[in-house]
Amino acid sequence: MNFNRKLLYQFLFIIVATIISCKPEEIIIDKTAITVQTLDAGELKSTQVTLYGEIGYLNDETVLDHGFIIRTLRSSDSKIISLGNKPELGIVKHTLMGNFEIGQGYNCTYYLKTDQKTYEGNPVYFTVNDIYVDNAKVRYSSIGDTMSIAGNFHQVDASFKLLLGTSYTALDVAYKLDAKKEKLTFVIPNKEFYHGDKIRVSFSKNIQEQQFTQYLCDLTIAARLLPPKVGPHYFYQPIELKATALPRYNDSFKIIINNKVLRFESEIYPSTLDLKGSSYKLGYIWGKDTIYLKETWDFEKPDMSRVSFLDKIIHPHGHTDITGFDYDKYLLNSKFSAKIGNAPGYFDSNLFEGNIGFRIEEVADGKYPVSFISDVYGELKINELLTVQKLKINSVDVGEGYYEDPIRIKGNFLPNQVYTISLGGQQVYFGQPISGDLVFPCPFQFAKGKNMIEIGYSNYGGNPFIIDTRAIQINGIEIKSFYPTQGAPGDLVTIKAKGLNSNYYQIGIGGMATTPLFVKNGEAQFIIPIVSKRGKTKISFYVDGKEFRSTDDFEII
Predict the structure, then answer these.
(1) How buried is 303 (Cβ within 10 angstroms: 0-12 exposed, 13-18 middle, 19+ buried)?
(2) CA gap 183, 156 in Å, rounded
(3) Burial, 55: exposed, middle or buried (Cβ in 10 Å; 0-12, 13-18, 19+)?
(4) DSSP string, 402-463
(5) Does the N-terminal peptide bond of residue 369 adopt cis geometry, omega within 30 degrees of 0?
(6) How many CB atoms lie within 10 A of CB 472?
(7) What digits encode the pLDDT tens for the residues 79-99?
(8) Rounded-to-integer distance, Cα 421 and Cα 465, Å
(9) What is the structure's pLDDT at 533?
(10) What is the pLDDT of residue 520?
């Protein structure tokens, strides 16, 4: 019993699943109205006529037939020309063979019949004559162009109008015929027409209050790129372009810059093109042809005869300024590098206002040419040479080695280079040479005795580049004498010492510290502070964490 119930459930599940899977899909019917129109007839001869219609839109209605209806104006006779039930969107063309009476008026209507209704375009009137063009193929033209079309125009007189028509507008255009009436000349108007517009060129004439038109040929409007404005042009600025008959709504007009095909824009920045060179060919695609302008877009080249170095000599890992070169005009937004001889050079990007900072790394002594290597201009060589000299220290004179006494270091120092002296990684001097030497007062950071100093110079970024290490002997401060040799708190004491020239010190006596009243020319005065004990003690000078004690004792009474 349970087994049969299980089979029953499986059977019901299969039935329900089958019903669900067979549910019909929803079908959406396109009910947008079909649009058709009748176009001017063309190639009108006594033995044949070319009829034109156009289907603008087809929906889901079933097409039963489409074609043309021809009527003569002198009778009610009509002729239906069926083209079947498989029309295609766009222009419908049919050449009708027959015997047409010259001067007789006809009208033509394009129709399209569906299972719902019959759609018809407005009738177009024409008359058969001997007016035709030699070649009715599509021609390309731009606004302002003068068009010359060969053909037979013997029957054309002053009563004929020349019409240039698009789906947007139709213009009555002035025209000329040559003496033999075998060449038609007219100018494409400078308004109303845009890139990509399809234009039908037709003659029109009023006969018995009816307007008869005769199709001659098709034109396709194609934009033209205009010559660029006169320079000077610079790489950081946009390439400015103008054109005639630009598209209404799309970007179908293509231009060419060197070998790149781009959509037209009124401004294009060179940096986005990834092109090399200082001269760009400009062109455009006109119809099916590629046209290059005789004018090119040229970037002004820098005058390297005006470029020089602010400092003609630098050290390895040193820097100088390049003058007479406008970075914004010639290098901004472009790809570039620099070299000194065959070694790389580098620009200091923080100094692009006015002069350009230029630095090098490890380069051997010598005189070298310096060049900019630019994607735009190629190699731009500076006319003068840059000299590289390794810093050499000739001597270090600390004198007697007392604080604030002058230390003089001799070497091949450069006048505008900043040099550094460090002690244990701490900078104790930073400055430029005086009369060719580094001269500075013995700093308090030096300890009494032997000190190892590092001599170098400030490289790019201000960091020191060390080139030499020297040992110097420092005495610091040496107390020579003091008087009186005894005294009570509140008494005045005068001290004479070496290395004593400024009021940076504190004086220690009897376990107390005090500030000198004044310090001048190796002499200091202080008042004995109140102390807790009497007796003999040493007099000390304290500076920068160091203590210098007297040899003799002072007695506090």
Answers:
(1) exposed
(2) 11
(3) buried
(4) BTTSEEEEEE---TT--EEEEETTEEEEEE--BTTEEEEEPPTTSPSEEEEEEEEEE-TTS-
(5) no
(6) 18
(7) 999 999 999 999 999 999 988
(8) 10
(9) 84
(10) 87
**What single-letter amino acid sits at 159?**
S
**Strand-by-strand arrangement of the 356-360 sheet:** 308-309, 319-323, 356-360, 343-348, 336-340, 370-374, 378-381
Cα–Cα distance measured from residue 365 to residue 361, given in angstroms and rounded to the nearest whole number: 12
Q: Which two tokens stand for residue 258?
A: 């060197």
- For residue 266, give both structure tokens: 């009124």
Give all strands of the β-sheet with 366-368 in edge-to-edge order: 313-314, 386-388, 366-368
Say what the pLDDT of residue 75 is: 74
Residue found by looking up tokens 């009738």 in the block: 123
Q: Which residue has the tokens 């003799």?
A: 552
Tell me the mean pLDDT in the region 345-362: 79
pLDDT of the residue at 1:
45
* pTM for the whole structure: 0.64
Task: Evaluate whether 279 touches 252 at the Cβ level (below 8 Å).
Answer: no
Cβ atoms of 348 and 460 within 8 Å: the answer is yes
Cα 241 to Cα 258, 266, 284, 408: the distances in Å are: 15, 5, 11, 65
| Peptide linkage before 270 cis (omega within 30 of 0) | no
pLDDT tens by residue, 399-423: 999 999 999 999 999 998 999 999 9
Query: What is the C-alpha R_g of the chain?
Result: 50
Residues in the chain: 557
For position 271, what pLDDT does the model report?
94
Alpha carbon distance 334, 337 (integer Å):
10
Give DSSP secondary structure letters for 54-102.
EEEE--SSPEEEEEEEEEETTSS-EEEEE--S---SEEEEEEEES---T
Q: How far apart are CA 291 and CA 535, in angstroms?
A: 109
Report residue 533 as tokens.
């004990």
Whole-number average pLDDT of the chain: 89
Instruction: Give the integer Cα–Cα distance in Å for 215 and 136.
Output: 9
CA 544 to chain CA centroid, nearest Å: 56
Residue with tokens 């549910």: 23
Using DSSP, state whether 207 is helix, strand or coil.
strand
pLDDT value at 191 more than 90: no
